[in-house]
Task: inverse folding
């Protein structure tokens, strides 16, 4: 894939994530329960607490650090703008866009790994694959493996 195509895929997935978070209904597109749990598990980074000691987490360390990334990004964005403090909805937006970027990276990687069957990559964009990418962090282990 060319750089322009990769950029277009990333932009499309990010915009799709924002639109799904904003306009998608519950539970048709958005399953808020897991993202609320991720919000709580990653809150340690902005409150000065320690994971596993001050904030309960049943997830491994990599996931706990991953849940903190949207907190850091959202807080940095609102500090730069000087506006309000971020909330759960902002966390949902940032988390969804982050997972969309991991999906785009996975698509590009798989596209380049199988030159004989490049079209199979786009099966990840079917509704079930998109739903779990948008609402869970499962795409990150898929990308890393």
Result:
């Amino acid at each position: 894939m060319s750089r322009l195509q990769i950029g277009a895929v990333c932009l499309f997935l990010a915009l799709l994530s924002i639109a799904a978070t904003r306009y998608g209904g519950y539970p048709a597109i958005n399953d808020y329960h897991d993202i609320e749990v991720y919000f709580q598990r990653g809150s340690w980074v902005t409150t000065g607490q320690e994971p596993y000691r001050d904030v309960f987490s049943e997830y491994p360390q990599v996931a706990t650090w991953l849940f903190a990334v949207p907190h850091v990004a959202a807080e940095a964005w609102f500090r730069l703008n000087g506006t309000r403090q971020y909330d759960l909805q902002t966390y949902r937006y940032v988390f969804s866009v982050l997972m969309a970027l991991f999906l785009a990276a996975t698509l590009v990687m798989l596209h380049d790994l199988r030159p004989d069957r490049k079209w199979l990559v786009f099966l990840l964009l079917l509704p079930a694959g998109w739903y779990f990418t948008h609402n869970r962090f499962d795409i990150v282990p898929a990308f890393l493996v």
